[in-house]
Design brief:
482 residues; mainly alpha; Amino acid/polyamine transporter I; two-stranded antiparallel sheet; 16 helices; globular; transmembrane helix; transmembrane; AA_transpt_TM; symport; auxin signaling pathway
Length: 482
């Protein structure tokens, strides 16, 4: 971000510089004076896959187990189609409908299309959700690191030891790595991290899928029922209802990537138009990830039936071959290291832009210190960025240590974030941009879609909160081991 700000300042402060060249675009700058974008279908797809395939894939077998063989896959397909449709609406709202100006963030797109009140609501919802996602990813990465340690312990003891592992040191280690990576200035410079993370996501998803297929072959039968987990001694009627609702939240979380879609679109070069490139990238990414999701979820349920674990690779899921499970969990950690940064960038950018706007004369906020790096360009160290981003990571790490509940947190994040960011605001922006008449057939269809998903989100939130409350009864913050 320091590089971009410095470049713009140089442009506007140099009287010899021909501003018309900037406005028309040049070798180094786009038509708005910002540094030239370099993204394409491949890099955008990598960003999206990194954002989509995350910790959510690990809970899909459990989610399908709560819903059953008919409702489970049907709900996943429904979420996939709805997400693709509303993502296409959001992508079309990248530029201001009047001026054609680019929107560098989701909130900027909302501001250019909707009134001030909706924009303020959007900011609150977006940044709270991004904050929650950072916590969720810290929890998931920690669970995978603990699983690697536990697998080694169980293997050495031949399964004789309980192998209780304190998860707090692993959360702290993850936090330290994120503090370092958080100093990457902006989204456009994250392409390499997203590419690595996308490869890692395919790695552990592929391993989970293969282990599910192998387990089904070993069992010789396909487990599970049409209606999902049966009510009986282990599950009461009330728990069945809460779990069903929570499963909807888990699936919604797996598709919650619209929150960073505009930021990804802002990395794409033009021509061709950003909309064309992003539509292609979104189609590729959602097709690939949806196929993975359905296969992983279904084979996980077929392998374990009603006993499908909340986390396929860690909690009473697959144990052998232990070395392959370790590779999968290591891939999860590497993936979430990158995904954490992808989802945190909008928060970083928002706070830093606000600070620079409110305190333009503060050297602590605006000044970059050039640090020479052998064989590379000098790194621009910004002290405010260093301090603020470090504090952000520390807070998310501490919150993760207080609420380390995988399924409950994932379901709640999906319930809270999916409807407003993926459905409501894209629909409202599209209606405003296209000037769709109120009470017209198209307007009614879009509103029915939005209200239907809102009902699902509210049910998912209720179920997830019930799950977290249940977990809190038996958990002691900072003391429990995994």
């Amino acid at each position: 971000m320091g590089d971009s700000a410095a470049s713009r300042n140089q442009i506007h402060s140099n009287p010899v510089f021909d501003v018309s060249v900037v406005q028309g675009g040049s070798k180094f700058f786009d038509d708005d004076g910002r540094p030239k974008r370099t993204g394409n279908v491949m890099t955008a797809s990598a960003h999206i896959i990194t954002a989509v395939i995350g910790s959510g894939v690990l809970s899909l077998a459990w989610a399908i187990a709560q819903l059953g063989w008919i409702a489970g896959p049907a709900v996943m397909i429904m979420f996939s189609l709805v997400t693709y449709y509303t993502s296409s609406l959001l992508i079309a709202c990248y530029r201001d409908p009047v001026t054609g100006k680019r929107s560098s963030t989701y909130s900027a797109a909302v501001r250019s299309h909707l009134d001030g009140l909706k924009f303020k609501v959007l900011e609150i919802v977006q940044y709270l959700n991004l904050f929650g996602i950072a916590i969720g990813y810290t929890i998931t990465a920690c669970i995978s690191m603990v699983a690697i340690k536990r697998n080694g312990c169980l293997h050495k003891s031949g399964g004789q030891k309980a192998c209780q592992i304190n998860s707090n040191p692993y959360m702290i280690a993850f936090g330290i790595s994120e503090i370092i990576l958080s100093q990457i200035p902006n989204f456009d410079k994250l392409w390499w991290l997203s590419t690595v993370a996308a490869v890692m996501s395919f790695t552990y998803s592929g391993i989970g899928l293969c282990l599910g297929i192998a387990k089904v072959a070993e069992n010789g039968i396909i487990k599970g029922t049409i209606t999902g987990v049966s009510i009986g001694s282990s599950v009461t009627p009330a728990e069945k209802i809460w779990r069903t609702f929570q499963a909807l939240g888990d699936i919604a979380f797996a598709y919650s990537f619209a929150i960073v879609l505009i930021e990804i679109e802002d990395t794409v070069k033009s021509p061709p138009s950003e909309t064309k490139t992003m539509m292609a990238a979104t189609k590729i990414s959602l097709t690939v990830t949806s196929l993975f999701y359905i296969l992983c979820g279904c084979f996980g349920y077929a392998a374990f039936g009603d006993l499908a674990p909340g986390n396929l690779l860690t909690s009473k899921g697959f144990y052998n071959p232990y070395w392959l499970i370790d590779i999968a969990n290591a891939a999860i950690v590497f993936h979430l290291v990158g995904a954490y940064q992808v989802f945190s960038q909008p928060i970083y950018a928002f706070v830093e832009k606000k600070a620079a706007k409110n305190f333009p004369d503060s050297k602590f906020i605006t000044k970059d210190i050039k640090i020479p790096i052998p064989c590379f360009k000098p790194y621009n160290l910004n002290l405010f960025r260093l301090v603020w981003r470090t504090l952000f990571v520390i807070v998310t790490t501490v919150m993760s240590m207080i609420f380390p509940f995988f399924n409950g947190v994932v379901g709640l994040l999906g319930a809270v974030g999916y409807w407003p960011m993926t459905i409501y605001f894209p629909v409202e922006m599209y209606i405003a941009q296209k000037k769709i008449p109120k009470w017209s057939t198209r307007w009614l269809c879009l509103q029915i879609l939005s209200l239907s998903v809102l009902v699902i989100a509210l049910l998912a939130a209720v179920g997830s909160i019930a799950g977290v409350v249940h977990d809190l009864k038996i958990y002691k913050p900072f003391k429990s081991s995994s």
